[in-house]
């Protein structure tokens, strides 16, 4: 059985667009998190196990500066994040308060987190980018989270951008956004996604040579046979003299 690192590396080798297609074939239609876009310049692609954080609507007796020192706070949760994790934050789509800022993101980066993904906003956006932690979010907002939200807990099932995310699921994020790969499907999806990208690369080559799309994309029996022949020729070891 492949390790988490091997699965994450295989998932990170393919685009989120390809992953949504492969997941669709597995019966998973709702995997792309709405509102989670790259913050600043694109940072390539990341993949890792989900470590979840959850916010709920603000309540005045709980959403106070004193909450920052509570045993149930983002400060405590950040210290539980394993290296290689993608921290996924359910902010209920709220974009007028920042769920994390530069200090907490710097700590996540120091702990080895792979990325932060949220359907909400971050604050201190310039400082967050300077930490080196890749971030996917809805945008930036100056107010702290307690202006609109209450932190409720971590490592629980959450909804982020309209998608169910369970702790331990795999999350892949790139320029097209962030996609959740259910943990039970991750190994199969990683293998199928690599083959899907190889097929689509071949289709692109055919399009570049002037081929028409009907029967090519998706490939019919004849074009599938042509692809398999090309794949065998590509993978064949070089012949000796």
What does this structure look like?
With 241 residues, the protein is of the alpha/beta class. The chain has two domains: 4-188, 3-Layer(bba) Sandwich (Glucose Oxidase, domain 1); 189-235, no CATH class. The protein has seven helices and twelve strands. It has helices at residues 4-12, 16-25, 74-78, 102-110, 125-130, 186-208, 221-235, and strands at 37-38, 46-57, 86-90, 115-118, 121-122, 135-137, 139-140, 149-154, 158-160, 163-165, 170-174, 177-181. The strands form three sheets. Strands 1, 2, 3, 4, 6, 8, 11 and 12 form an eight-stranded mixed beta sheet that branches. A two-stranded parallel sheet has the order 5-7. The protein has a two-stranded antiparallel sheet with strand order 9-10. α1 packs parallel to α6 (186-208) and α2 crosses α6. The longest helix has 23 residues, at 186-208. The radius of gyration is 21 Å and the shape is elongated.
């Amino acid at each position: 059985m492949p390790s988490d690192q091997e699965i994450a590396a295989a998932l990170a080798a393919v685009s989120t667009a390809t992953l949504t297609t492969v997941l669709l074939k597995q019966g998973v239609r709702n995997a792309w998190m709405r509102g989670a876009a790259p913050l600043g310049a694109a940072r390539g692609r990341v993949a890792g196990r989900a470590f979840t954080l959850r916010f709920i609507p603000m309540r005045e007796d709980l959403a106070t500066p004193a909450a920052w020192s509570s045993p149930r706070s983002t400060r405590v949760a950040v210290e539980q994040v394993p290296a290689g994790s993608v921290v996924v934050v359910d902010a209920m789509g709220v974009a007028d308060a920042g769920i994390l800022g530069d200090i907490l993101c710097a700590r996540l980066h120091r702990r080895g987190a792979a990325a932060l993904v949220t359907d909400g906003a971050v604050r201190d956006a310039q400082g967050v980018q300077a930490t080196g932690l890749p971030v996917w979010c809805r945008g930036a907002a100056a107010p702290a989270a307690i202006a609109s939200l209450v932190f409720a807990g971590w490592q629980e099932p959450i909804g982020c951008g309209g998608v169910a995310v369970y702790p331990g699921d795999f999350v892949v994020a790139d320029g097209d956004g962030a996609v959740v790969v259910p943990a039970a499907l991750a190994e199969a999806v990683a293998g199928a996604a690599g083959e899907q990208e190889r097929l689509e690369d071949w289709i692109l080559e055919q399009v570049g040579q002037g081929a028409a799309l009907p029967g090519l994309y998706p490939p019919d029996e004849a074009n599938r046979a042509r692809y398999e022949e090309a794949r065998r020729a590509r993978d064949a070891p070089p012949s000796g003299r």
